[in-house]
Design brief:
two-stranded antiparallel sheet; alpha/beta; five-stranded mixed β-sheet; Nucleotidyltransferase, domain 5
Length: about 425
């Protein structure tokens, strides 16, 4: 028997939603109507994003008894209202704009966007994004800026190589790192006016001296005063960035102090050095209660494939999607480094790369690293113990198991396999 459905009201009684722009935001507040039970009152007001206006907004929300404030992640404009309201004691949620889509045909204005977001939020039909605590946010600002400087330095080094090619100086052919000790001496000599290939080649140090004949050929070109002027500016830029990175490293070491134990334990994972460990902590924090399981962390980082199924048929595993690009860069480099080691992660990378390709192997090893990281950060008593590069060989030592695997592989190729014991 069908009965009339009567909604008994929203789960979140007093909620506010902000539609944020660069100079202005629109705030929608929805609270219960005390005079008419089961009904709602709504207030929509514009506010400047300046600090004084946000303080007035916080006072108004406090007067209305608002307990939760929800806002979309709009560029970096969300940070000022989020941090201010968080400091004022409100429960602030940052949500993904893709999770709050309008229905087709619905008009779109700032006011309507704020109302829609508030209605969705009061029914708890959205989930908050991960926003780390202030101490992790400060560390994240430093590590991300360091990454940007490293990218800028690499770009400047590439400009140097292009300039040398323009001058027909083939230094990068003979020297693997033109910014090493020998390389910088040679570049400084070029800037200083030295053009004799033999003199430049004799500046090689250590094992590079075996390449002196090749270096003489490489320095035979047309390096002019024009090239020297540009090279001077480029080398100065590289040195300035190196100095800035060194200053950042010092500041990061000071900020990472409370998390030194976590850094040391992550540093034990193959492929992850101290710099990578600092960057990982800056992106995911150290409190793993935000991620109930390792799978939640891998899914948030987009290191887990999606599932596409329709009409009972699997439509492929789907792409992983775009997650935190700073974390992805760090894990990708760490996975590539681990792939060159004689460890369990190295064996896993090589095993998968043979069958699925390098890119999928990097994602799979990155996911394995996230699982390890989750356990290490969840339990401070745990230490990383490597399973060894021979883990898969030992696991497959059982003759019957190896037999089943070989039969399954042959059957997958279209063969019918019949086994007979050898004489």
């Amino acid at each position: 028997m069908l009965e009339e459905a009567r909604d008994t009201g929203e789960i979140i009684e007093r909620v506010a939603a902000l539609d944020i722009g660069k100079a202005e935001l629109v705030c929608c507040v929805r609270v219960p109507d005390e005079s008419r039970p089961g009904r709602r009152l709504q207030e929509v007001t514009p506010h400047s994003t300046m600090t004084r206006s946000l303080l007035v907004l916080a006072d108004r929300l406090r007067a209305l008894g608002v307990t939760r404030v929800v806002m979309e992640a709009t560029s970096s404009y969300w940070k000022a209202p989020f941090y201010l309201l968080e400091a004022a004691g409100f429960e602030v949620w940052l949500v993904n704009a893709k999770d709050v889509k309008h229905l087709p045909g619905r008009p779109k204005t700032d006011k309507l966007d704020a109302i829609w977001l508030c209605k969705v939020a009061e029914r708890q039909m959205i989930r908050p994004s991960f926003v780390p605590p202030p101490e992790i946010r400060r560390l994240r600002d430093l590590t991300r800026y360091r990454t940007s400087l490293v990218v800028a330095r690499n770009a400047e080094k590439q400009r140097v190589e292009k300039l040398l090619e323009d001058a027909q100086i083939k230094m990068s052919v003979a020297v693997s790192d033109i910014f090493g000790v020998s390389g910088r001496k040679m570049l400084a000599a070029l800037v200083g006016g030295q053009r004799d290939p033999k003199v430049l080649a004799e500046m090689a140090c250590g094992s590079m001296r075996r390449k002196i004949p090749t270096l003489e050929e490489a320095f035979t070109g047309h390096f002019t005063s024009h090239h020297a002027f540009l090279l001077t500016k480029m080398l100065a830029r590289v040195d300035d960035i190196d100095a800035d990175i060194a200053d950042l490293d010092t500041r990061i070491e000071a900020e990472i102090g409370p998390f030194a134990d976590q850094v040391e334990r992550l540093d034990a994972i193959p492929g992850i050095d101290r710099t990578a460990a600092q960057a990982i902590i800056a992106e995911i924090g150290v409190d793993m209660s935000r991620f109930p399981t390792p799978a939640h962390l891998a899914s948030w980082a987009r290191f887990a494939p999606g599932v596409k199924e329709s009409a009972g048929k699997q439509k492929g595993t789907g792409a992983t999607g775009h997650g935190n690009r700073y974390l992805a860069r760090t894990l990708g480099n760490a996975a590539a480094g681990a792939g060159r080691t004689q460890t369990f992660l190295g064996a896993r990378y090589r095993r998968l790369a043979r069958r699925r390709g390098n890119k999928k192997a990097l994602v799979a090893v990155g996911r394995s690293m996230l699982v390890i990281i989750w356990h290490l950060l969840s339990d401070p008593t745990l230490e990383y113990v490597d399973l060894g590069a021979d883990y898969y060989d030992l696991r497959n030592a059982d003759p019957k198991r190896r037999q089943r695997e070989h039969v399954r592989q042959l059957e997958a190729l279209g063969y019918k396999v019949t086994l007979e014991p050898a004489a």
